[in-house]
Amino acid sequence: MTRAQRALRIGKILDEFYPEVPIPLDHRDPYTLLVAVMLSAQTTDVKVNQVTPVLFERAATPQAMAALDVEEILGRIRSLGLAPQKARHLQALSRLLVEEHRGQVPASFEALESLPGVGHKTASVVMAQAFGIPAFPVDTHIHRLAARWGLSSGRNVQTTERDLKEVFPEVEWIRRHLQMIWFGRQHCPARGHEPATCPVCSWAQEP
Q: By C-alpha distance, which of 69, 48, 71, 68 is closest to 60?
């Protein structure tokens, strides 16, 4: 079975399980989505969703966040992984949004990736979910699934992103990204997984 054939069959399964897919991170607009995605590094989405209401109660705009001391930001996100670094990045990127982008989140990969603490995966999520621009964000979970399902060699996330973009039509990228996140959590976890009972692994791992 070729990668394209696997992708077609997997896509049909994902559509059956998740005809509609919510965005895992709670947010109100492009800025709060950007913040939530940045905070999610090495932290679960559940934990981020517990922290962001407290943070956004104090500052839900770039202007308000930039005006806060780093220590106050840190106090509201301290339970997250890498909290000190994230607090510094959050204040700095908010200041840059005010100073260079009129307080708006730019709909540009280049502009987003130039912000402190914003890498390609974070930029891809914002471009896809906030602006509807085709992107296929690859985190460690999607990287794992792509290799497990025979859709990519799994050498690195850059290769996985390229491979997934090749086997899925561009119009499906945003949907497939979210579907793979939910499917991985609920049916194909990293640990304690039983491939024989998985709707995908039960056949996709075959030669």
A: 68
Give the CA distances from residue 83 to residues 16, 73, 75, 104, 206, in Å, rounded to whole numbers and listed in that order. Answer: 38, 9, 9, 24, 42
Is residue 163 flagged as an active site residue?
A: no
* Active-site residue flag, 139: yes
Task: Please state which CATH number belongs to domain 3-22+135-204.
Answer: 1.10.1670.10
Residue 90's contacts (CB-CB under 8 Å, 6 or more residues apart) are 35, 38, 39, 65, 73, 77, 117
* pTM of the entire predicted model: 0.93
Which of 106, 29, 101, 37 lies closest to 61 in space, CA to CA? 29
Task: Choose the catalytic residue: 15, 26, 86, 121.
Answer: 121
Tokens for 159?
């290769």
Per-residue pLDDT tens over the stretch 73-116: 999 999 999 999 999 999 999 999 999 999 999 999 999 999 99
CATH fit for domain 30-131, picks 3.40.50.300, 3.30.70.270, 1.10.340.30, 3.90.76.10? 1.10.340.30
In the block, residue with structure tokens 């499906």? 172
Q: Out of 29, 69, 139, 163, which one is annotated catalytic?
A: 139
